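seq/struct pair 1
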Amino acid sequence: MLRAWIFGFALMCNANGAFAPVAEASVAAFTEEYCSACHGYGSAEGDVDLAAIDVITLQQDPELVRQLLHVLDTREMPPEGETQPAEAERTWMLETLRPILHAAVADSRVHVRTPIRRMNRFQYNNAVVDLLELNCVVYSLPERTMRVHQDYFQPETGRMPKTVKVGNRPLGKSQMIEPRLAGVAAFPQDLRAEHGYDNRGDHLSLSPLLMEQFLKLGQSITDSPDFSPKTVGIWNRFFAPPENYADLQQAERLKTVRDRLQPFLTKAFRRPPQPRQLERYTDYVMSSLADGRDFTDVMKQIAAAAISSPRFLYLYDRQAEADDDTGLQPIDDYELASRLSFFLWGSLPDDALLALAAEGRLSQTEVLNTQIDRMLRDRKLKRFCDSFPAQWLQLDRILSSVPNRETFPDFYFSKYRLSMHMMLEPLLLFETVLIENLPITQLIDADFTYRSSLLNARYGPLGTQAKSPRNEVTALTFTRQPVTDRRTGGVITNGAVMTMTSGPDRTQPITRGAWVAAVIFNDPPEPPPADVPPLAEKPEPGEENLTLRERLAAHRERADCRGCHEQIDPLGFALETFDPVGRWREQYESGLPIDASGRLFREYEFDNVVEFKDAILAREDRFCRALAGHLLSFALARELGPVDELALDEITESVSAEEYKLQALIRQIILSKPFRTKS
């Protein structure tokens, strides 16, 4: 049988690269032998019927090809207990399906359009700050997880300092007050999409009610008592009356107004305004001044109107005729400038990007690479760190974590709450990996961390944790220190993740496994069937002598649950030696031993959390591809589709040649076809 597979692979393409009939027979033979029991002949689990599959059918359904590639590569299918293909057969099928996916995407011209979307609250604040060059924020931003107490973030140095002082507004009430414009209230916070981000276009609509709120918001910004030359960096260039304006001739006045409006509107709208657009704004200014209104007041009205305009609020690609062969069109240089700036800076393109866009040079690869380097060294990169990693790691879930107060009293004893310190540790790790351009594997198995005195008292070294004295000063100073115990390094075993994936009284291996699947492998499991009752927090009568693994075994007995549990249970039980607040333990309170063993991808056996990390890193390309998917989805503000899968393969291959450095990954995201094209 195996010889037939290899012979079929050798003959499957003709000289033109087209699929020969033998490929259809070989694909059909594979699905007949390994898939048809569950996905054919009257059984179509997951609504997938492979009984009569052939190459032509696959080319017409790129999403199906993508799913087949995924389940075969991750060894989700065939399920355990069923006949498994030999490694050579599995490799053959993967190598056969990849060119089919390429052909399917090309033939179907199925491309996911980057949707029109409005700025979210975080982006709006940044855009207004940059447009007006404010030296304060517009309004308070609780969604910004980390608050800087000192200017430690200096990416231009390529190094993070040994000690940083930071805080956290969502969890800590006694925080340094951040300067902001008085009298300005933010619009409602935009929530993170499930398995996505808060910049997703399908979540960011603009209702008439919200449009009215934006109009009021724009007016309140320019009406704020803090809106003055001390606060607004462009005051003299835009708001202050020109010298001797009253002595100028009408033509000179008109030119003066136009010279102020042109660069302002270009930056606000991310491209030069249309002539009629500029004319309308100019006419308003000139007629208002002719009526005797104050110059500064008129320009404030212009600014308020601009930051309430749909052209400011909406992020979109201009419509263009798609290429006849691919269905794609390169984005223009102004669109590229916007994608770059909102990806890395969460804000408007700066003057340098807009100037290159005006010259038509930004899309040149050498120029683009230079700008990527510049942007990665700019301190506005902090906005990327304030937005992406917390959402990627789903750290907002710690806000609703409520460990049992009687069992874990120390979790609640702290002026600033222990959970706040937990949240900041993985964020500082991410920032360091980014600024110092370290391999992304440090996110899994870091050899350093940043910890406060409170975290050191509670979490390490492992086995020596002790309760802190009640008179301990809870400082918000985090110090860089080496990780000497591999059980603790990286984001997976961080206290915040361990706590937010637990219940009040016990760990939740299924929840932890689902988090690892979604965050680390970008493969979120399907929701459980509605009729499956949750496992009780505490053992039921008769379960006192059962381990948690044994109690959960009942969930695996249902056929419609077994597939997911085979994938996520090993991921969750690998972390079972961390209790509900992330402290190390060797056994349950009952004295029963903890079994943290398992198998990853049905290939890598592990007995403990260190070996689990080794198993993940044995396929660092898989983690790289998953993180690339998260970053690309964040950069494009949309869910990914089959065509993006091809780009992820290319990105991963390129980054692997650069030792999986995080900056290399970000660069390849920007250079990728999905980032630089539109449909």
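seq/struct pair 2
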Amino acid sequence: MIELTDKKKKSLLEKYKERHGGCAICPGCKEYIRGSDELADVEYIKTKRGTEVFLHRGCFEKVWR
């Protein structure tokens, strides 16, 4: 995981929305993650293939076991 500030997370979420045409979805709980949400509880992961994943901290165990 990459430690980012809330400002940087908001910027990445805006770029994600432009590229994919919608808000990021948490793969653990299937809820939308918006730039207006509390971003302190949101994690950003970039895989080796370049896939960008946004998820809630509480959902981390649901996604990666």
